[in-house]
Amino acid sequence: MPLATLRHMELTGSVPALTAAYEVIRQPLGEILPRLSAVLAELVPHRAAAELSTHCAHSPFKTYGDAELSGRLTTAHLAPLLASGIPGRPWQGTLALAGSEWPVLAVTSRATIRGAVLLLVRDADADAVDAPAAALVQALWDVVTSHFDRLAAEALPGALARSRTAAGTRARVIAELGEAYAAALTGVLGVLRSRTLDDAAARATATDLAVSALVELRAEAERDQEIAEEPACQAFARLADSLRPLVRYSPVRLELGAPDSARTVAADVAHTARVIVRTLLLKVLEQEAVSRVHVGWQITDDALRATVRDDGSGALTHGGLADGGIAGRLEVLNGRLDVDAVPGWGTTVSATIPLRVSQDPSPDPLTALGERELQVLARLALGHRNRAIAQELHISESTVKFHVAKILTKLGVESRGEAAALFHAVA
């Protein structure tokens, strides 16, 4: 167990591991990776850190550290490590990054159902990490991912709303970028395949490179979908596993109706549906005259419908079932709860969650901006000039000018002053 490993390492005097773990998980989500990197820096010196955490629909991929390295890391580097990694067996090897080979340490955890991987990029001349140090990194990462899983499973309505908005925005941005790059690369292929070109070898090489770029671009979108979404049947199987212990020693017979659908659902929708069904089942089991409960999911093009039906007295009411956080969770996702009680025959409770994100009639204009554009706009709103912004964000002035031009276009304003005023109005 991770906790046992941490205690052992603390008692043997390597580091105050339990204190370190506490210092990491007490941070806000956005600060966990920087804090974890700082905690591990003395034990395993490294220049950059990255994580791929499938629990999070908001931002599953994060990087921290040396901008030259962390800026080059992508999900394409971490996804294979997550797929092939073995929990409890940290992997050491090299990674081609920024034109060089860098020694890395990769640690995989299965504390969350679909796993998470931590990557530490080390100095080029770094020695191999010894076994005790690697074991401590593994233990800390297991603690952190267990914390992630709890936060995902017990997400508050506000966190659900942010996650849903971010996931929808990211999907839109990926679609837009995909269309733009696919059009550009297809045009390049058309030129390179032209019979007017003389150097056949150069044409063949360039064609292969362009085809590889197209394949990688499509793979990026597929990887994002795998992280941000979950197959409905798999999501229901996880629910079933969590419900069976609730009736294991009860006379109540539990019947399960898995969804007859091969489609995927957003991770936050799946989390919410599971939490709601568990809460409803506990309410139903509080009745005395229940001998059978049926739990089922139905997936349509527009919604996930989770149903809990019992053969009890039919005395349950909407007011008695809407507490326990159910109402708040459904409200965030624009869902609804329906209760159909027939005295003497039982109660059927249905929670319906839309699968498509509805459009806000007054959307936040800043949602159109990317993360870097928001960073530039925030500094622009403080009155900083391009040179100061470039120094603060460690980018060139020409890059700042490019971001400012994109910001003005996306916000539909004509000057930096108007953009700053809009930022202050929204913020």
From TrEMBL:
<dbReference type="Pfam" id="PF00196">
    <property type="entry name" value="GerE"/>
</dbReference>
<keyword id="KW-0805">Transcription regulation</keyword>
<dbReference type="InterPro" id="IPR016032">
    <property type="entry name" value="Sig_transdc_resp-reg_C-effctor"/>
</dbReference>
<dbReference type="InterPro" id="IPR036388">
    <property type="entry name" value="WH-like_DNA-bd_sf"/>
</dbReference>
<dbReference type="InterPro" id="IPR000792">
    <property type="entry name" value="Tscrpt_reg_LuxR_C"/>
</dbReference>
<protein>
    <submittedName>
        <fullName>Helix-turn-helix transcriptional regulator</fullName>
    </submittedName>
</protein>
<keyword id="KW-0804">Transcription</keyword>
<keyword id="KW-0238">DNA-binding</keyword>
<dbReference type="InterPro" id="IPR036890">
    <property type="entry name" value="HATPase_C_sf"/>
</dbReference>
<feature type="domain" description="HTH luxR-type">
    <location>
        <begin position="362"/>
        <end position="427"/>
    </location>
</feature>
